[in-house]
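Running this now, will post back.
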Amino acid sequence: MTTDALVIAGKAYRSRLLVGTGKYKDFAETRAAIDASGAEIITVAIRRTNIGQEPGQPSILEALPPSQFTILPNTAGCFTADEAVRTLRLGRELLDGHSLVKLEVLGDKETLFPNMPETLKAAETLVKDGFQVMVYCADDPIQARMLEDIGCVAIMPLASLIGSGMGILNPWNLKLIIEQARVPVLVDAGVGTASDAAIAMELGCDGVLMNTAIASAQNPVLMASAMKKAVEAGREAFLAGRMPKKFYAATPSSPVGGLIGK
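Update: finished.
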């Protein structure tokens, strides 16, 4: 396994797989799947998951304590910049000043496609307010550059629609974003199985964030283990550098010169 680290906002992580906490049957399954994934950064939807805003109710932090994981509060379910900013300010308060966050501002309740004007607006406000913003966005190289120029610490373009499991539908745009970025690029949304994660890493992504692909699998813990291996394999393949594709020309794997009897 490669030992190169994923560095986000100046902090190094061994795992390049980030995992969400929604859709599991209970906190025990959540913890088991995350342990199997090897993930160190765990994203939590502030509007849907209790991290202290509901006193007396079970908290996800009991299963996933911040002493063991980097908790990444996100704005899932927010449809305006103002909603997202308020939500992350609440998360920062509940997590004792924690500044690393995941911003997502949705534009449509059916597709959950990002509202990019509102995303840009929220990102600018949050960066000025001292947040370290990882941002879910469309696979648009121009808007990705704008988010980086604002000061976001990671760009997170969708592979396909949230929860769709369709995999990477536009590898060309994703590659353009990766080639121009000076901050980490992580695929967020649309991964369905291990091969999707491996392809994202082979393209040069710095990491992959997923939730539904693991939580909605028939065996979430086993799928989490598969995703861990896929991300590691994809990263190693990217670092190794694949052979060039040669159309209409075969080259034997074994040398033909010096054959016995020739």
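Strands lie at 6-8, 11-13, 17-20, 41-45, 70-74, 100-103, 132-137, 154-157, 186-188, 207-210. More later if anyone needs it.
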